[in-house]
Design brief:
Two copies of one chain form a homodimer.
Chain A (H helix, E strand, L loop, with lengths): L1 H20 L24 H8 L2 H13 L5 H13 L7 H16 L3 E14 L3 E7 L3 E2 L2 E3 L11 E8 L2 H5 L3 H4 L3 E4 L6 H16 L5 E5 L25 E4 L1 H12 L5 E6 L2 E15 L9 E7 L9 H20 L8 E6 L7 H9 L4 H4 E6 L7 E7 L2 H12 L8 E3 L9 H4 L5 E6 L4 H4 L12 H20 L11
Parallel strand pairs in A: 5-6, 6-7, 7-8, 11-12, 11-13, 13-16, 14-15
Antiparallel strand pairs in A: 1-10, 2-3, 2-9, 4-8, 5-9, 10-12, 14-16
Helix pairs in contact in A: 3-16, 4-10, 4-16, 10-16
Chain lengths: ~500, ~500
């Protein structure tokens, strides 16, 4: 009952976040998570506890082979080859589709089973020429990145005076007269991603309602070395769609200081960004078929293959996609096959609003309670792994707590709950399916997120091995247990 | 004798660095400094030691007023106003000259004395349109920054295949046949600024000798979020001048990985950078005239006002310039006037090769031993102050050690020696004049250095207050002592 109560609470929280931040960003800053409900209330049958403990030697073996054995370094090398060959992988782009074809080939080469793709319709927004220049009181180019779904400016751009504010609250005090025809610059201080991203997601809608002609927003990051960060935004129903882009922390704060000193600032903004017709992309799937269950009680391990179009998406979410794929590759090569099928899904169209996951959910809805046992997702970095972030009912939690303890050889035994379970799998976890997200030492995650800094330089070979090892070991144990994971699914 | 020996050694080291890195970068990574010779060999007369200790109450008062009193926050605000008004201040630019005029006005407003400028001829290199694109095996824009003194490409740019190497040693093994007509990409791993900067300073000369048509170099930084870093370079006598620019760490490493996998890479590089006629700029000077000595035994406090043309030079070296100016402003406002004149000098043309300092040295050479008592310089950041980095003879060192101890109220009592004393004052300190450089917790200095990240976001108001307080207090004590600082000047 308690678990159900907290699930309802949690669903309420998610709805709140979605209302605040749009559907594009329901990834919640991990530091805001509630404390765990506590292990003391668990009352696992002793034989089940012993069964789980019995997996320690196999977990040790998996970790040993991936971290110190013949698989060491392979995950990083594969990720480097992927991102060095295809670069960024924006939804709707040729690069993403080529990367999908490549992963299908490679999964087959790795002898994964039932390798295939499943269609998912995704938005097709494209970045065109983008330029912003402060033209008064002095000339300065402003590095910028248009936001996903943003419209462009008319050809030749727009030139307008600036209104700069730190918060929506400060903006509320302004009249339509003051805002009309202006470029509104929002300069929110970083609080957390969950709290601050609303300026990126909703800034254009808020400003447009008072007649602004465009919005420029301080990049949503706690730390900057002059790089703008992109991301999604969405227009409220019925508002005039105005161009919206993020500028650097440095320029945004300079503009706010000058504006507050009484300077009149003028910006020339040109953006050729545009929305094309939706595009049929694909989720990429490979399996290690179970010995007992083949197409039911599946354990999903997942990350998304698409990325924004800046940087190369090595961190968001190349690392998560690679460990999901390679976990199966390594288990297969070790000859380890669990009772249940482990299915790697590399989602498409995550960045524009979880489109790959949504399409997959719809396609697999009819029989979903039978088909799915557990969902893993890695989409908040593959830095040094800390443990797993669980969502599900109390019984599943008590089982999963024991499983996480097995990860002691890589010191990744942290357990937290509740969580959102990761963005793509939230299509299931918010309805009561059990799932877990890879917790890692990702304190710097948002430094690189959606920027030119999202590159192989962020990924460390040894750390990525540990993440892959944790992924393979945890998925194997969940998939091989004598019982399926309990769940209370809300229809 | 020992001091003289280490001075010779130190001069030898400087020469070595200059040979390696060109005259543009003799700023040595602080972490490479030798250990201090030790305090135990000091034998200060007891009355002198007591005299210095007697300054503790006045030091406390200076620090109190600047850090916690009415001056708190003023240094940061003044720096913000300077960089927000004039932006970057490249040698030869209108912005730098306007900034100099502004500082002259402000120094007069602050009632500094003998406010004036002194001419210094500086190079006049300008950045034009710059673009680099990887055109094969796939298209990718490469963020780049041309290097000071680099020539441009022909109009329309050059398209050439890539040779990528990690080191000069690796490059040595290549033949003229292999290099001729290629763009050479140098991808040195960061070791330290002193060790790694040689690729930026000399890469073009090294590559040109084997017939390369251009060089692109991994930015000289230990950490990146997708930002290129500029800086100076110089051509060896007689080499064909080829365009040279830095690209991001991320792109450079990607290129090296692809090259090593056997990919054929082609880059289209266009740079309209060019060298114009030298320009007469100005060092900016203000004083607090001494009660006993007016134009002799001067204590100089200094930083440079020019910057590179990316970011706004808030860190390099707006902070150093501001604390030098404001130290005098605050002492004057407190009614503190020392026996000796304290002279703030805001150097010009530092970034292109210490031109402001060089011109000043030449102009003041005739009577320099009498004119100058001590040189302070801040040009390695104004983060949390740690103490002072001393260069000079043993007697001066022993006196200075006692002075540094007075900085305990802001926990800035670290003392190190030998050092290079800072780039601009090295015109004097390398010849035996005593001087000191502001040591601070600048572990992240090179993250921002010469990049778009060099902004007010790097500077903290409270920390800048502490630096200004240390600067004012140390300069005051040196200027007010009963004896001048001992020196052994090499003619």
């Amino acid at each position: 009952m308690k678990a159900y109560g907290s699930l309802v609470l949690f669903l309420g929280f998610l709805v709140l976040v979605k209302v605040q931040a749009g559907v594009l960003d329901n990834r919640i800053d991990q530091f805001e998570l509630d404390e765990s409900a506590g292990e003391e209330s668990c009352n696992l049958p002793d034989d089940l506890r012993q069964e789980i403990k019995g997996y320690q030697s196999i977990v040790n073996k998996i970790i040993g082979r991936i971290v110190d054995g013949e698989f060491a370094g392979q995950t990083w090398n594969s990720l480097a080859e992927l991102v060095d060959t295809f670069g960024a992988r924006l939804s709707g782009s040729e690069q993403l589709e080529k990367a999908i074809d490549y992963v299908v080939d490679q999964m087959q080469h790795d002898q994964l089973e039932n390798v295939h793709t499943e269609n998912a319709t995704v938005p097709h927004w494209v970045r065109g020429y983008e330029s912003a220049q402060l033209v008064a009181p002095f000339k300065k180019n402003l590095a910028l990145l248009g936001l996903g779904t943003s419209v462009g400016t008319p050809r030749g751009g727009i030139i307008a005076d600036v209104i700069a504010v730190e918060s929506f609250k400060e903006f509320e005090a302004l009249t339509v007269e003051q805002v009309k025809g202006k470029i509104v610059v929002f300069v929110p201080q970083w609080e957390s991603y969950g709290k601050t991203v609303v300026y990126r997601s909703k800034g254009a809608s808020v400003a447009s309602k008072k007649g602004a002609v465009a919005t420029l927003i301080r990049s949503v990051t706690p730390f900057s070395i002059g790089s703008p960060h992109t991301g999604g935004q969405d227009y409220d129903e019925g508002v005039k769609k105005i161009p919206s882009a993020c500028i650097t922390v440095e320029d945004a704060e300079m503009i706010l200081r000058k504006y507050r000193r009484g300077d009149r600032l003028t910006i020339h903004l040109e953006m050729e960004d545009r929305n094309l017709e939706p595009f049929v992309s694909r989720n990429t799937i490979g399996e290690l078929v179970g010995t007992t269950y083949t197409n039911s009680s599946v354990v999903v391990v997942s990350g998304h293959l698409d990325s924004w179009d800046v940087g190369v998406g090595a961190m968001d979410d190349g690392g998560g996609a690679l460990i999901s794929w390679k976990a199966l590759t390594f288990l297969k090569a070790m000859g380890l096959r669990a009772k249940r099928t482990i299915r790697a899904i590399l989602w498409t169209g995550e960045e524009e609003g979880l489109w790959g996951g949504r399409a997959y959910k719809e396609e697999h809805k009819e029989n979903e309670k039978k088909e799915f046992n557990f969902f893993f997702e890695s989409d908040i970095g593959t830095f040094e792994p800390r443990g797993l972030d669980f969502t599900g009912n109390k019984d599943a939690e008590c089982i999963f707590r024991e499983i996480v303890k097995l990860m002691s050889p890589i010191n990744a035994t942290d357990f937290e709950t509740p969580s959102d379970g990761g963005p793509d799998i939230s299509h299931w976890t918010t309805r009561g399916f059990p799932g877990a997200s890879l917790m890692n030492k990702n304190e710097k995650y948002f430094w690189f997120h959606h920027s030119a800094g999202d590159s192989m330089a962020v990924e460390d070979p040894k750390t990525l091995d540990k993440c892959a090892a944790l992924w393979a070991a945890a998925a194997y144990v969940v998939a091989d247990l004598s019982i399926s994971m309990p769940k209370d699914v809300v229809d």
